Amino acid sequence: MGWILQGALALYAVGLLLSLVGFYRKRQLFITIALALVGCGFIAHTVFLTLLGFQRRHFPITSLPDSLCFLAWSLTLTFIAAYFRYKINALGAFVLPLVSALMVLSGTVWEENHAIPPLLRSRWIYFHTSVAFLAYAAFFLTFVSGVLYLIQENELKSKNFRFLYFRLPSLQVCDELLRFSLFAGFILMSLTIVTGAFWAQQAWGRFWSWDPKETASLMTWGIYLVLIHYRLSARWRGRRAAYISIVGFVSAVLTFSISLFKGLHTYL
Q1: b/e map of 46-81 (b: 16 or more CB within 10 Å)?
Q2: Residue boundaries of the structural domains of the chain
Q3: What pTM did the predictor assign?
Q4: Which partner for 236 in 12, 121, 240, 249 could form a disulfide, CB atoms 3.0-4.6 Å apart?
Q5: Secondary-structure percent of the chain, ordered helix, strand, coil, rounded to 5
């Protein structure tokens, strides 16, 4: 099955290259071909994860390589959904580099005969981990849209329209993408925390243990809750929301990576 994953990586990589060329030269043809290749790569990626699950008779997220591979899949899914909703040609140039990097890193540290920890042999893993990774992917889109907003706003304020101004989406589109991905990520992270609590009760006999990952997840959830509150009250929009979205994503990255060092989630 390794050739399927390698094929998906190749399609993502070529899609990334064409996205960068299309972004630089402002050619829709390159963007369209890149999207088609990424779509084919996503299909191959999905087939690989499905076959891996059948081979192991288990959900294919039980180790760091699995996690990186599934995160790349989640990012690609959110990228495709965001592109078709907002038609942002520049999006691939900012999202696909991370997808390709995660795929390369996953393949580098891949383990063929990985023992599945007994704790992960639970039905909770199917929903809990899926929504968690989709939440990370949505928050990455929130981060990207915040960065795009700040760059475009700076271009407008300088009144010296240069390379990026003509290639990035409008401030309104950036803010809409930020809003959509923010609410989606927040809902998914909320479900992650709730389902994680029930799984913890089943596995360890308590809903909350203040494990480093649990604590970090709650902090990340709190940051985005504050942002949502002030967006709904019309106080934090535009630049301020973009800055907070970047802070929230930094917290999300720490949440994802903290289990590599210590705590009850060290199996990932």
Answers
A1: eebbeebeeeeeebbbbbbbbbbbbbbbbbbbbbbb
A2: 1-114, 117-268
A3: 0.91
A4: 240
A5: 80, 0, 20
